[in-house]
Every structure is written in structure tokens, then in C-alpha cells.
Specification:
The protein is mainly beta. A hairpin with a 3-residue loop joins strand 34 (about 540-550) and strand 35 (about 555-580).
Length: about 750
């Protein structure tokens, strides 16, 4: 069996062989112009080749140039604020190519090309699975206190929250280990099993977020039963994109409800083919206020940083990144039981990520790998010097993919991946045993794509080996568990006309039980429970089928989707009816039963006029325990959202100013098991306004938003505080983005 050290050496050797094996190819230049329908040049239009992580922007004449491109067929995306994005497939040989692109005016937000959910970049309209993307100006407008709050009103998405600082994504009723969060394509590996364990990501260091709804085990392996959230950072800076030798951006965010201030400083630049970037973010928040008063012990602090260096050549690109996330989170407890509670968490997450793309004749090789260290400490009281829970998780990941790059409608992708984890518990009291995990997988994915039809399918084989260390405290003997699974997906998209698509997807997913679910035995202060595992748990296996109808034009962006996800051996927690005599906490036992989740989503953006955009969402999900004929626990309430945004291209010196309002209606959730608290329905009103305005040669972005305008008292069904505390009251946020330039060539 591979050890952590031998796997690390294998990854380093593989990476070096790819790097040293990259050779310069004959190169061509792609150039062109981008105009509106009247022939006026569009300045600053983004021209991107997502497969290569390369791009540029049009100049003052609306023209662009991409040099040093190897012969291949490329899928390009052209996007500009206020216009419908456009996709072109361009074949380059040994000669230069010039093209002309005309963009149609539109105030809608378009997903464009997505890199999540299929083996290679694909138009969202052609993706068999339902996909949504938040990027650009829309991301700045929606940017929340955490990364996941940015997507909280996306179709099919809910949040499982613990106060203001902890938000776990829920997709189609599934969360934690059943929703995979990836950072620029690399799995984010922390202690995901905890109710109050959120993804360790910096909300101020995000360039794009893509959400795929439905199982994605073929491409991503275990844990992707509900879907995938890919958090994507900024590209490697380059002179080709017009980046300066040294520039930057200052982000300032403020939130009134908990007196929160957040700021991020980014410095970046490029010299020749070398690009570099650094980020520093700080966040400080006080206690959360509700319509019934302030929640004691609910403050937070966060310090994050990252750095990246990379190169872009005609053979591809190579980048090395480092990231640090550090936070201190206070956990509010029921004041009727613990009025003086002052428990808190300290979480640190460090990672090194190497990713490269190497283009040869007709083949794109991608290497993606990294090292992560997650250190979680949970303290019972503010004055404690030693944590009650102290976990160290180290993860090493490596993946290599080979993909055809040609003008043929049929493309194939094959890949190999490996993962090694070491988890150690440092505190005197043990909650879970120490363990080592080694996983390996291979997959193949085929896609046939024409203007009218897209058919895709794939197979994947996974093997995981979980080695449990002996723990006398927990009464666990040393042992080894092995799990394997064959997963598959088959999808099709039919486009009878250019702006209309019918999609269907059949997917098989899986998830192996975690060491926590198998062997936990003890008090978990974070969840205020005494939790007990079951060493006989089997892997979860799901079979999902979904259908969707999509419309995408310059005036309408709409989708209706329905799904059914059957999960065999679904793992959940259920109270035993007993109380731990020492802690006084209720005892919860991990159990297993077959389950079925059914539901649907509706989303709409409609440009009523060139200055008025209407928006609507509807989410419905039911979860059933097939063994007990009871509902599954922690299923989000059905909800709907309607909104309107008024905008204009320019008013005096203000560019793209807007005013918006939304009304979110949430149904009561009384389809709950007997041991879960039901919650009543409620409605929330929000307002927003913002604009861009020029300062020198740069655009400053300003956004003001008021959430829960009427200070409505309510209890979100997925709030861990719902049994004894309301959700936050009125919250006014102000967000400013200021770009600047320090050195130009």
C-alpha cells in the first residue's frame, strides 16, 4: 500500500516530468474585433479561452490579440457588461486567424462557458446537468459575509447556518459530505462532517462561483451526491491581458447587523510571461442582532492570505499557489440552558496548489494537485487554554487528465486521481479515532457535441482504503476498511432552435462512510450533542434522474428542472431518547436507511425593457426516509423569490447604475421527523442599489444593500439556532471595490 511519503514523491515526479516534457509548439495568433449591433467598438470586452485559462480584453478600438497559440480547436467566450455573452469555436493551424464578433445588448446575467460538471469547458445551455454561475459585476453585488452566502438565492441552493460566520451549502436537500466544494478544481478537504464546520474559503478572494446540481461522482469521486460548488480564483495575470507590471484592488465591505468590517487588498502584475498575485483579507464582527435582541457569544474574526506565481506560454500554463485561512468563531448556545456559555472555535486551513495545462498536437494534458492542512480546535469556554477537540487533517491530492483538442464533434477525456489523508486527534479527549485514508480512481468521459445535439457519458472506478488506528479511549481496535464503487453518467441536450434546450441526465453517485460516522463516541461541543457512530455502516449509493427545459436569449434566461434522487443506505443521525449524565447532552446515533429526494426548480430572468429586469426563483424539495415512512431531517422549506431591477447604461458620470428589490417567500416546514423542530413560514424584503464611476482610468464599484428591510422575526429551518433564537434582523451592507495601478510598463 502506498504511504503518504511515497505518494508525495510520485506526485512530484509526475509533475516534473510534465513540466520538463513541455515543448514549444508552432504558434499562431488569433485577433479580431468586437462591436455592438450598430458597429460601435466595445471597449474592455473579455475574450477568454477557459480550457487554457487564457484571455485578454479589447482595446479602445474594440480589437484584441491572442499570441502564441498552439494549433488546436478552441472554444472562446466573449462577454461584456450590458451584452449577451457569445461563444465561438475557432480552429487554429499554422497561420494567423482574424475574426469579427457582434454582441447583442442585454441586461441579463449569462452563465456563458462553465468549467464544472463536464470534462471540458461547455456552454451552460449544452450542459446535461443544471449549472449556474455567479461572476463579474453580479458577484460583487451579491458577495456575502462568507463564500456560500454569495450563492444563497441561486436555484436549488440553500444554506445550513450557525450564526453569521458559518454557512454550509445545501443542494437539492443534501449537504456536508454529500456536496463537494472544490477550489479551482481541487477538492476542499476539512472536517466537513460537523454541522458547524463550514468550507474554509476567503469570500474576498473569489472571482467566479459555479454550482452544478445533481450527482457528479464520475468527475469528482466520492461525496458529490448532491452536486458540486467550484470556487474559482482570478486567472494568472499576463501582459497579454493588459495587466500592469504592478496593480491591485482594494475591497471594503461593511455589515450593520453585527458591526462587521471586512477588507481585502490584492496586488498583482505581470512581466513577460510571468504573472504574480498576492491577497490579504481581514474580517471582524461583533454579536448578531435579531428582532428579539442580541445573540451573546456570536462574534467572529478572520485573517486570510494567498499568493500565486505562474507562467503562460504557447504550450499552456503552469501556476503555483499558496493559501491561508484562519478564523475564530464564537458559538451561541441556548441561554435557557447555558446563559453564560462562551465556547468558540479556532480553525486554520493552509494549502499549496499546483496546476498546469500542457498542450501538444491534438491533446491537452492537465495536472492538478496539492497539499492541505486543516487544524480545528474547539474550546468549551473563553478562558480555556486547551481545546476540548483538537484535530489535524493533512491531505495530498494529485490528478492528471488527458483531453482531445480538435474540431471533431466527438471528444474524449481520461483521467487518473489519487488522494491520501492523515487525521490526528491531539486533545486529551478523543471524539474520533486517528486514521489514514488512501484513495485512487480512474475515469473516462466522452462527449459528442453539435449545434443541435450534445450527448455525454462517463464511467469511473474508485477504491478507498481507510486504516483506523487503535483508540483505547473510544474502545476501537486497529482495523482497515476498503470501499470501492463503479459510477456512471449519461446525459443529452437537444437544441431544436438556437435559444431553446431540452436536457436529461442519469447519474450514479456514491459516498463512503467517514471515520466520524463509523466510530464517533463522545461529547461534541459544537453540535451540543453526545454522538455515537455505527461501525457497520455501508457506503451510500445514489441513482439520480433529472430533466430540464432551458431558454437563453438576449431577453430571457429561464430554466425549469425536475429531479428524483434515490439514495440507498442514506446515513443520518437520530436521537436515542437518552441523555449523557456527564454533559447533559442528548445522545444521537448514526443510522442508515434508503431515502428518496424529489423536487424541482424554476428560475427566470426577463428583460421587460432595456432598463427593467424581472427575476423569479422557485425551489421545491421533499425528502423521505423509505424505511420509517417519515420525512428526512434537515430538508429546506419550499421557497420562492421575485425581484425587479431598474438599470441604465449611464447617468452623468455614473455607469450602469441600478436599483433593485426582492421579496422572498418561505413556506412553513412541518414535514419533519418526530424529533425535529418544525418552523413557520415567513417573507423577507430586500433592497439594493449600486453603480460604477470612473476614477482616473479605472472604474470604482459601489453597492448598497438592505436585507430583511422590515426587521421581520423569522426562523430559517436550516438554522442550528432555530429552537432557541431568531435569525438576524435588518442588515445594511456597503461594498466598495477600488482598482488601482502602481507600475505600468
Amino acid at each position: 500500500m502506498f504511504s503518504y511519503i511515497s505518494m508525495r514523491r510520485l506526485f512530484i515526479a509526475l509533475s516534473l516530468s510534465l513540466i520538463l516534457g513541455g515543448h514549444l509548439l508552432s504558434a499562431a495568433t488569433l485577433s479580431g474585433s468586437v462591436t455592438d449591433e450598430s458597429g460601435n467598438p466595445l471597449i474592455g470586452t473579455t475574450v477568454a479561452i477557459p480550457a487554457l485559462h487564457r484571455g485578454t480584453a479589447t482595446d479602445t478600438q474594440g480589437e484584441f490579440t491572442l499570441n502564441h497559440l498552439a494549433p488546436a480547436a478552441y472554444k472562446l467566450e466573449f462577454s461584456s457588461i450590458g451584452y449577451k455573452s457569445q461563444t465561438r469555436v475557432i480552429k487554429l493551424e499554422d497561420k494567423d486567424v482574424t475574426i469579427k464578433v457582434v454582441l447583442v445588448q442585454s441586461q441579463l446575467n449569462f452563465p456563458g462557458i462553465v468549467v464544472t460538471g463536464t470534462a471540458h469547458p461547455t456552454e451552460a445551455l449544452n450542459s446535461p446537468q443544471s449549472t449556474v454561475a455567479v461572476a463579474g459585476r453580479e458577484l460583487e453585488r451579491l458577495r456575502g459575509e462568507t463564500v456560500m452566502r454569495t450563492i444563497q438565492n441561486s436555484p436549488g441552493v440553500s444554506l445550513y447556518t450557525t450564526g453569521a460566520g458559518i454557512a454550509k451549502p445545501v443542494i437539492r436537500g443534501l449537504t456536508s459530505q454529500r456536496v463537494l466544494v472544490v477550489d479551482d478544481g481541487m477538492r476542499q478537504e476539512g472536517q466537513q462532517w460537523g454541522d458547524e464546520h463550514a468550507p474554509e474559503l476567503d469570500a474576498l478572494d473569489v472571482d467566479r462561483i459555479e454550482v452544478v446540481r445533481g450527482p457528479s461522482s464520475v468527475l469528482y469521486g466520492s461525496d458529490a451526491l448532491g452536486g458540486v460548488i467550484n470556487v474559482i480564483g482570478a486567472e494568472i495575470p499576463s501582459t497579454e491581458h493588459g495587466d500592469p507590471e504592478l496593480g491591485g484592488r482594494l475591497l471594503l465591505n461593511g455589515f450593520s447587523n453585527n458591526d462587521q468590517g471586512a477588507g481585502g487588498l490584492s496586488l498583482f502584475g505581470a512581466r513577460g510571461r510571468l504573472g504574480y498575485r498576492g491577497n490579504l483579507s481581514l474580517r471582524d464582527a461583533g454579536n448578531t442582532r435579531t428582532p428579539d435582541g442580541t445573540l451573546s457569544n456570536s462574534a467572529m474574526k478572520e485573517t486570510d492570505g494567498s499568493g500565486m506565481v505562474g507562467v503562460k506560454e504557447n504550450w499552456g500554463s503552469l501556476a503555483l499557489e499558496y493559501g491561508h485561512f484562519g478564523t475564530r468563531l464564537e458559538i451561541h448556545e441556548d441561554p435557557a440552558e447555558s446563559p453564560d456559555a462562551s465556547g468558540f472555535q479556532r480553525v486554520q486551513h493552509d494549502k499549496v496548489h499546483l496546476h498546469g495545462k500542457f498542450l501538444t498536437q491534438g491533446l491537452l494534458l492537465s495536472v492538478n494537485g496539492g497539499w492541505q492542512k486543516n487544524h480545528r480546535r474547539e474550546y468549551e469556554a473563553a478562558g480555556d487554554s486547551a481545546p476540548g477537540l483538537d484535530l489535524n487533517l493533512r491531505t495530498l491530492i494529485a490528478e492528471v487528465k488527458a483531453q482531445q483538442v480538435s474540431e471533431s464533434p466527438l471528444t474524449a477525456t481520461v483521467g487518473l486521481s489519487a488522494e491520501n489523508q492523515q487525521n490526528r486527534s491531539v486533545a486529551a479527549e478523543k471524539l474520533i479515532p486517528d486514521f489514514d485514508m488512501l484513495g485512487a480512481a480512474g475515469f473516462a468521459y466522452e462527449q459528442f457535441e453539435t449545434q443541435k445535439l450534445t450527448v455525454s457519458g462517463g464511467l469511473r472506478y474508485d477504491n478507498q482504503r481507510l486504516k483506523i488506528k487503535k483508540s483505547e479511549d473510544l474502545g476501537v481496535l486497529a482495523q482497515t476498511r476498503s470501499y470501492d464503487a463503479l459510477t456512471a453518467t449519461l446525459g443529452a441536450v437537444v437544441r431544436p432552435i438556437n435559444y431553446l434546450a431540452f436536457a436529461a441526465n442519469l447519474g450514479r453517485g456514491w459516498r463512503s462512510p467517514t471515520a466520524f460516522e463509523l466510530f464517533v463516541d463522545g461529547v461534541h461541543e459544537g453540535t451540543i450533542r453526545y454522538e455515537i457512530g455505527d461501525s457497520l455502516l455501508k457506503p451510500e449509493k445514489s441513482l439520480n434522474i433529472d430533466f430540464s427545459v432551458r431558454v437563453l436569449s438576449s431577453r430571457v434566461n429561464a430554466e425549469v428542472a425536475v429531479y428524483r434522487n434515490r439514495i440507498n443506505d442514506y446515513i443520518y443521525q437520530q436521537p436515542t431518547g437518552e441523555v449523557d449524565p456527564v454533559s447533559g447532552f442528548d445522545k444521537y446515533l448514526n443510522k442508515q436507511a434508503d431515502a428518496t429526494l424529489t423536487g424541482g426548480e424554476f428560475s427566470l430572468q426577463f428583460e421587460a425593457t432595456e432598463w427593467c429586469v424581472l427575476r423569479a426563483n422557485l425551489n421545491v424539495v421533499h425528502g423521505d426516509n423509505n424505511a420509517t415512512n417519515e420525512p428526512l431531517p434537515l430538508i429546506p422549506a419550499n421557497n420562492a423569490l421575485v425581484g425587479v431591477k431598474f438599470t441604465h447604461k449611464q447617468i452623468s458620470s455614473l455607469r450602469n447604475p441600478y436599483i433593485s428589490t426582492t421579496f422572498k417567500l418561505v413556506d412553513k416546514q412541518d414535514r419533519v421527523p418526530t424529533y425535529e423542530t418544525a418552523t413557520p413560514g415567513y417573507g423577507l424584503v430586500s433592497l439594493g442599489a449600486g453603480t460604477d464611476f470612473g476614477v482616473g482610468t479605472h472604474d470604482v464599484e459601489l453597492d448598497l444593500r438592505v436585507e430583511n428591510l422590515l426587521d421581520q422575526p423569522y426562523r430559517n429551518h436550516l438554522s442550528r439556532y432555530k429552537a432557541y433564537a431568531l435569525n438576524p434582523g435588518r442588515n445594511i451592507s456597503l461594498k466598495i471595490s477600488v482598482p488601482f495601478e502602481l507600475a505600468r510598463r
